[in-house]
Amino acid sequence: MIDKSNRFRALGTAKPGELENLRQQMLAQDTDYLPAYHITPKTGHLNDPNGMVFDGEKYHLFYQWFPFGPFHGMKHWKYLITKDFIHFEEGDVLAPENEFETHGIYSGGAICIDGFIYCFYSGNVMNEDGETFSQNQNIAKYSTDGKLLDRWNIVSQAPAGYTGNFRDPSPFINDDGELMFVVGAQREDESGATLLYKMASLTEAELVGEVSYGGKSDLAQQADVYMHECPDISHSNGKDLFILSPMGLKPQAERYNNIFSTQLMIGQYQKGEMHAEQVIELDKGFDFYAPQTFTDSERNIMLAWCGNGSLSIPTELLGWKFMLSMPRELLMEGNKLMQRPLVEFDQLKQPLVTLEQPSRYDIDGNLSQSHIVVDGIADQAFSLTLFEDAEHKLVLTYQDGSLLLDRSQTIETDDMKRFGSERTVKLESLQQLEIFIDNSVIEIFINGGEEVMTSRFFIPNRSHNMAFAGAAAVKISEMSAISLY
């Protein structure tokens, strides 16, 4: 049993050497699952990516962090700065210190204005009943060298007609050059909504109203959706991309089978109305939620939380929990969204071997930190089995237009099993797979990124073997280990 009695501790209460001791315990306990090139917490619990922005030279990203244990506790924003997504420096942690954030700093986005970074975030406060919480909206000002300069409240409470579930502000500049933000909300009838605010200045926020979803969006008909989380607006090749994580979505065949899922609406956004020409589930794996985007001079980049809700996973017994996905580029090619790993990760690839004969192979290299490209599938039946021993294996199978990821023979907690051990993607055809493995996470890019599956898996003492069946060529590279920060 994990002791959660300290779940509302702030970073400032850490004793000298306490976090370093927790870090060393974690490293000593976990020799199987800590990743090499995915962002993980140094200690404790990680969830949503936050505050992602490009300042013209460097990328800035934060994530939800509870330092003292592998569970949802007092939220902080951990701050990382990078030029290449491989090497990172740390900025000042955004820790709860004020009356508008007494019980944590919840998620939000960021924007760069006049050489400063403005982080929009939700403050979490306990209600008078001593059991429930409400959120408000705030801004923290940072320098581009990672220094926290100031913070202030901009919206003290949810507007009339909405509950205290009011979080995840995401700022953007509209077509008229005005500073706006969208924020997730819950109506008093406990249905989900997205609110739109306009800002005359960085200290004044005015409610415009609810964002409406039309076209092919069926959110208005989703009676079970009780909260909108992590709204995010970006653009690609003339299309607006509106990401939303609606809590309460019901499964629809192969879609929305996780405890919480994420939608992407592709179409046109204008003045609080999102007309959806397409609605897709962004990722078809087990572990993907709360994605956020930002742009550099050329690319629309997304990261997500490789986790979901409060699901129990094996690493919580080892002192840490969850990680971020690899950053990936979002781009529209015609009417199709493509997701691709960033080219920055090419520098980690060290070619090992190319296999062309279906068989079982022991790999002379680290398959646990690897990049695998499968070419020449030509829409024929295919299977790939990884890390097989007497008790465990991870299996990917394609037949008759269905790609199936099966983790039933890996270690799964009862919590994980509640949502099934298989995920399926329906395809018109399968031509190619690009797979990244990092000890306890697999990210599968299908047909150049037309679909993606992101999933955690847990196999201890992995054997570096794989087997494949079908007419294909399998090229394996090792991803060189790095120390992120």
UniProtKB/TrEMBL annotation:
PROSITE patterns: GLYCOSYL_HYDROL_F32
Keywords from the UniProt entry: Carbohydrate metabolism, Cytoplasm, Glycosidase, Hydrolase
Any one annotated GO CC term: cytoplasm
Catalytic activity, EC: 3.2.1.26
A GO molecular-function annotation: beta-fructofuranosidase activity
InterPro entries: ConA-like_dom_sf (IPR013320), GH32_Enzymes (IPR051214), Glyco_hydro_32 (IPR001362), Glyco_hydro_32_AS (IPR018053), Glyco_hydro_32_C (IPR013189), Glyco_hydro_32_N (IPR013148), Glyco_hydro_beta-prop_sf (IPR023296), Suc6P_hydrolase (IPR006232)
Domain named Glycosyl hydrolase family 32 N-terminal: residues: 38-341
Enzyme class, broadest EC rank: hydrolase
GO terms under biological process: sucrose metabolic process
Catalytic activity: Hydrolysis of terminal non-reducing beta-D-fructofuranoside residues in beta-D-fructofuranosides
Compartments, as annotated in UniProt: Cytoplasm
Protein name: Sucrose-6-phosphate hydrolase
Species for this entry: Photobacterium rosenbergii
Source lineage: Bacteria, Pseudomonadati, Pseudomonadota, Gammaproteobacteria, Vibrionales
